């Protein structure tokens, strides 16, 4: 028996950072994303976000590569969103994402952080939040590409 734990705080945004996730219908999107996670035999601790980005705390099944998971998550949800009348302005997800490794003792803190997104963003816009998350995790930011879409 192998024992693994691959907990990630994942953050990804809409193409061009546009506000295309309609708050009144975000739970529909979250349920769809949860279904993808569940079908990958992974565990979703929490999901939340704002009209232009999503935060997820996920424990990935050991047979799943993070890059494959993100590719499938974004592809499937993008196709689904484009068919939904409740998300009329959605054009796609931005190319990149952040996936920050966490340990089990971080789950409660990150879960509360995700729960508090609406309140947090009354004081802090997404670019500043994203930059701080990356810097706090020691991720080197290349300014030529930071939050830029093709």
Walk me through the structure.
- With 150 residues, this protein is an alpha+beta fold.
- It is 36% helix and 18% strand.
- It has a four-stranded antiparallel beta sheet, with helices on both faces.
- Strand 2 and strand 3 form a beta hairpin.
- The radius of gyration is 15 Å and the shape is globular.
- The mean pLDDT is 95.
Helix fraction, binned, reads: 25-40%
Q: What overall geometry do the principal axes of the alpha carbons give? A: globular
- What is the averaged pLDDT score? 95
Strand order of the largest sheet: 2-3-1-4
Assign the CATH architecture: 2-Layer Sandwich
What is the name of the CATH topology? Alpha-Beta Plaits
Poorly predicted ranges? none
Number of distinct beta strands? 4
CATH class category name: Alpha Beta
Tell me the distance between the termini.
Answer: 44 Å
Report the order of strands and helices: EHEEHEHHH
Biggest sheet features: 4 strands, antiparallel
Class by SSE composition: alpha+beta
Strand residue percentage? 15-25%
């Amino acid at each position: 028996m192998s024992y693994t734990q691959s907990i990630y705080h994942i953050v990804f945004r809409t193409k061009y950072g546009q506000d295309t996730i309609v708050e009144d219908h975000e739970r529909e999107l979250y349920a769809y994303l949860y279904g993808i996670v569940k079908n990958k035999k992974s565990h979703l601790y929490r999901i939340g976000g704002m009209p232009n980005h999503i935060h997820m705390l996920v424990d990935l099944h050991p047979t799943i590569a993070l890059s494959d998971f993100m590719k499938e998550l974004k592809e499937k949800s993008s196709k689904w969103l484009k068919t939904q009348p409740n998300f009329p302005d959605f054009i796609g997800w931005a190319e990149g994402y952040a996936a920050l490794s966490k340990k089990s003792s971080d789950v409660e803190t990150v879960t509360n952080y995700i729960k508090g997104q609406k309140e947090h963003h009354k004081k802090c816009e997404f670019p500043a939040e994203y930059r701080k998350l990356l810097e706090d995790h020691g991720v080197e930011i290349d300014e030529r590409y930071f939050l830029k879409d093709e």
